[in-house]
Amino acid sequence: MLKNYTLKQCSELLQSKHISASELAQEYLHSIEQNNAAINGYITLNHEQTMAEAKAADELIAQGSSNLLTGVPIAYKDIFCQQGWRSACSSKMLDSFVAPYTATVVQNLRNAGMVTLGRTNMDEFAMGSTTESSFYGVTLNPWQNQHVPGGSSGGSAAVVAARLAPVALGSDTGGSIRQPASHCGITGLKPTYGVVSRYGMVAYASSFDQAGPMAQTAEDCALLLNVMASFDERDSTSIERQSEDYTRDLNQPLNGLRVGIPKEFFGEGLTDDVHAAINNVIDLLKKQGAVITEVSLPHTELSIPAYYVLASAEASTNLSRYDGVRYGHRAEDFNNLDEMYSNTRAEGFGNEVKRRIMIGSYVLSHGYYDAYYLKAQKLRRLVANDFQNALNQCDVILSPVAPTSAPVLGSHDQDPVQMYLSDIYTVSLNLAGLPGMSIPAGFDSKGLPIGVQLIGNYFAESRLLGIAHQIQQHSDWHTKTPFAL
Ligand code: GLN
Questions:
Q1: pLDDT value at 236 more than 90
Q2: One domain for residues 96 and 16
Q3: pTM for the full model?
Q4: Where in the sequence is the domain holding 109, given as residue range(s)?
């Protein structure tokens, strides 16, 4: 029997002792056993470990030293190092890698007593928008299994949508929390760059990567972010600031809220269904007293090339550490050291990852650095400036998350650039380091979910979560499930 619980509901059941953490974990593991094969959302499970964590949570509850998250189950994207668990980033390269330490965000949630259900599928090294590049096979969209769940955090989005976990963690370098959340009909938040620690999260493009919560509701995202966010001296870009309560704006009304609609986000490629979903949310906001204004983000078109140059450059550098010496896979056949390196990398990395390494090495090479890398850095500044100008005229920006609903499996096989272009509405936030959310906003003509994006200024997470919560108080899109429960 699938459990249609939010984090909040799990927490209430646990605190009121209607259910124990062990019983709850057992029920989820049972549902996973029955249903995961149909979507391939989880790629690693460890019943013994899950039950040991649940037992420890029960002890905390019995001692009266529990908090809201104690005993609540959660799923982790395979990108987070987690001591004792295979942490493979869905790559053959790390298939044999069992992490010797735990990522800070995961540790924070472990310290609060959350119970690990398992590790979820993703695009290899988080490079992709469909979860098709995983070494462990594609994850299927629980709404319609001939469609992808989006990516790269497709496994996390799918297990939350399929109710095989109340909440999950994802990571977002160019949209990987927001876009799969949109394609699977759930809620996801990418925090301001630096709010959550990157320590122990396998690096893709370090100046973009941020972890974030994925859940049914904005309220659950706020409860998770409260515990995830912390200053971490082991991450040099972690921001030292006073901790805040991300639930504090949940009940703030929308009356007078200035919502900016970026006109460049409504051009060619946006489907009518997605446009209609945005309009529905605009209507809802107006009814609640929000004021809608048009804003401009003139460098939108250039954000894709800038992002793919910079993210690939950083990826090529970050992935040089996989050399067969220190981590994971090592080729068996080689005659000398150079061959050991090249055979290891040829065997260990998939095509999309190799493509990024080649692009990245090219744009960083002598003679091309100024033409590509440096130029892209300048564009990055212009994109960030665009957002500051727009956010001077409004409190929050409302936009699509992706131009279409979830594509059919294999749509981008022959044309990776087509896949890159679908990131048009998400990558600019990462270029600027701004926070963004994806929340459910209806369905397309085929019944596939569509999300809308809320973009705020730096450190506006609490406000974004509040707006998302108010939208969810006045709509029921986020309560819909892919199958009758
Ligand atoms: N689709 C984008 C990419 O492939 C974003 C991925 C991500 O956010 N991890 O780079």
A1: yes
A2: yes
A3: 0.98
A4: 2-253+434-479
Average pLDDT on 376-382 reads 98
Given this model, what pLDDT does residue 216 score?
A: 98
The DSSP code for 230 is -
Q: Which two tokens stand for residue 313?
A: 């450059």
Lowest-confidence region among 27-41, 271-285, 381-395, 407-421: 407-421
Which one of 357, 427, 430 would you pick to mutate in the ligand 1 pocket, going by the greatest count of ligand atoms within 8 A of its CB? 427
- For residue 1, the model assigns a pLDDT of 61
In angstroms, the CA 120 to CA 191 distance is 20
Task: Please tell me whether residues 330 and 448 are part of one structural domain.
Answer: no
Q: What is the end-to-end Cα distance of the chain in Å, rounded?
A: 8
Decide if pLDDT at 41 tops 70: yes
| Binding pocket residue ranges, ligand 1, CB within 6 Å | 126-129, 152, 172-176, 204, 311, 423
Distance, CA 152 to ligand 1 centroid (Å)?
A: 6
Give just the sign of the alpha carbon dihedral 42, 199, 429, 260: positive
Specify whether 11 is located in the same domain as 133. yes
CA of 335 to the centre of ligand 1 (A): 36
Q: Determine the distance from the C-alpha atom of residue 226 to the mean position of all C-alpha atoms in its chain, rounded to a whole number.
A: 17
Active site residues: 77, 152, 176
Regarding whether 146 and 215 lie in a shared domain, the answer is yes
Domain count, the chain: 2
